[in-house]
Amino acid sequence: MAITIKKIAEIAGVSAGTVDRALNNRGRVKPEVAERIRTLAQELNYQPNSVAKSLSIKNKGLKIAVILHIVRNSFFDEVIQGIKKAAKEISDTGIQVVIKTCKDFDADYQLKLIEEALSEDVKAMAIVPINSPLIKNKINELTENGFPVVLLTAILEDTNYLAYVGCDYRRAGKILAGLINLITRGKANLGVLSPTFQMCGHLYRVNSMCDYFSTHCPGIQVSSITEVPNDEIGTYMEVKKMMEEHSDIDTILYGSVAVKAGFRAIRECLGEKPVRIVALDLSDDIKEALLTDNIIATLIQNPKDQGYRAIRILFEFLTSNKKPKNPLCYINTEIIVKECINEAEM
Amino acid sequence: MAITIKKIAEIAGVSAGTVDRALNNRGRVKPEVAERIRTLAQELNYQPNSVAKSLSIKNKGLKIAVILHIVRNSFFDEVIQGIKKAAKEISDTGIQVVIKTCKDFDADYQLKLIEEALSEDVKAMAIVPINSPLIKNKINELTENGFPVVLLTAILEDTNYLAYVGCDYRRAGKILAGLINLITRGKANLGVLSPTFQMCGHLYRVNSMCDYFSTHCPGIQVSSITEVPNDEIGTYMEVKKMMEEHSDIDTILYGSVAVKAGFRAIRECLGEKPVRIVALDLSDDIKEALLTDNIIATLIQNPKDQGYRAIRILFEFLTSNKKPKNPLCYINTEIIVKECINEAEM
DNA sequence: CTGAAAGCGCTTACAG
DNA sequence: CTGAAAGCGCTTACAG
């Protein structure tokens, strides 16, 4: 049997309550005694029983807030699935998870959501942070005060947090480069369509890909790097513009959530001329494009996992005070070809 | 607050013990009373609290056995990592995990291991089953008696079990076909080196790949399908034989754990002639071959996940009597190119 | 600053 | 067949 608080209490000649207060630094223990108990616990290699901890915590009504940066899109629908899965798993501990959606990329509004959550006595927070000083400062302030914040899917520079859960964008860029190199056998004029660089990860990804091309793939030229918005019309216009201005493009990295309109723009410009397309993520539209051979491959970032992990990390912190060994919790990135799609699941 | 046994007891006008006995079919409750309690619990949508369950179970000394089919190899080293990760996570519930390694592919020996485990009062079992009537019958017998058995990494036909955790070999075959089609642009003479068909999943995988070629890839010919053993010398001989007998081979699916010797055989036969190689799994040798461009891509089966999931499923069963909704728990298969390898981690 | 007691929700000897 | 009580290990008012 493992060593318990009761056993430590016996050996130290104090009560269980005192051991608990000492080990969890709750104060109200004579410093010398606390120190003695802590040393003893270490010597005995005491590991608190997490199940008992979770059960005893049940009536405290702990809450975790999840704060998004947009109203919704297909990627975050999946993130939310993962969040809900984790929420269900931890519900027996009495910990609640509340999700707050934001006006698209509205930093003022997001800040209000944070304040709202805090006023509701939330004890931990996962946030898809909008890249604004407003948000950065608030997160830094929270972290300084020991409040656990997990950045979810979007990383921020010059900001402190308990953990970042999301894609390793630089590695994703490298993998995209390798994939495009493989598919094109090292010869391509590439048009890059990226989601907004307002989220710095997207910029890291493109830069990392381009770096890899310039050091490893002399035959691959990046003809254009174009940011595309979240909507169909905006995407159509940007894609059209890129294709018209760069008629040499024979390969495209397609990083927009708006698929139908962008593909129409490509076809309008290229006619029947062949083009190799590699995409990002796996919305229903992307799946369909894969299955109809309009896309050769796509790189996915396991959004469901991301949501799941973020909640689990906060849960661990709340129940066991454990911080992740590595604050950068990178979620796996996967190459998907059409044969990976289970048509039965569609 | 969720509904508890205590609350049901109050409403039903009985004690908590009686509710527990009724809901868990432990007998020693008057049938009418038991029925009434069960109905009530359903109406109230009672969900037992898994944390409390785990805690109360602590002193029962439950044990899970893991029974392997070989002494070791690099793939199963990773499977075991996953098993140990899960074992650590559940250790606070007092459930132990014991691992038993087997003489390589020795069904008699594996049967003895099963008996040994049972005599040690193990309450659940994960097994990498050797494809033999001896083992099949035993597993069927156990399952019939309500004893939870999870098949790990290897599936059996005509056998009943709580769950299978492992690769979806047919889908893996399809993905391999798609990958090879992509890499070769649909023109190849393929030599297939597969691990033993004694494990039927390996056969499913090859067959599924070949089916896909014949329906979707007219330009891809399968020149040879060769089984390779686990050791370097045997692999060398089989590879050499295949390459000598099929000089048209320009593409290889390399499914052997013995990398160095087989690659030597390939080189001895082909000289400087180029060959495209796609591999299976991700041992250190495969990693090195990827990084040196001797392998173009490999398909991995997340062995660590497989071990982890198998234990979690048995844990759920032991603590909550829950069976997985789908007994076929397929673990994800991933395409890996060299850019996916984090050289810092090697 | 410290301890005894009760509680989280489920389970299980034990007594009847 | 049934209930009261104690236990799993940690936490927390409460009394002192």
From TrEMBL, chains A, B:
PROSITE patterns hit by this protein: HTH_LACI_2
GO molecular function: DNA binding
Keywords from the UniProt entry: DNA-binding, Transcription, Transcription regulation
InterPro entries named in the record: HTH_LacI, Lambda_DNA-bd_dom_sf, Peripla_BP_I, SBP_2_dom
Entry superkingdom: Bacteria
Residues of the HTH lacI-type domain: 3-57
CDD domains listed in its UniProt record: HTH_LacI, PBP1_sugar_binding
Keyword Transcription regulation: yes
Protein name (Swiss-Prot/TrEMBL): LacI family DNA-binding transcriptional regulator
UniProt organism field: Caproiciproducens galactitolivorans
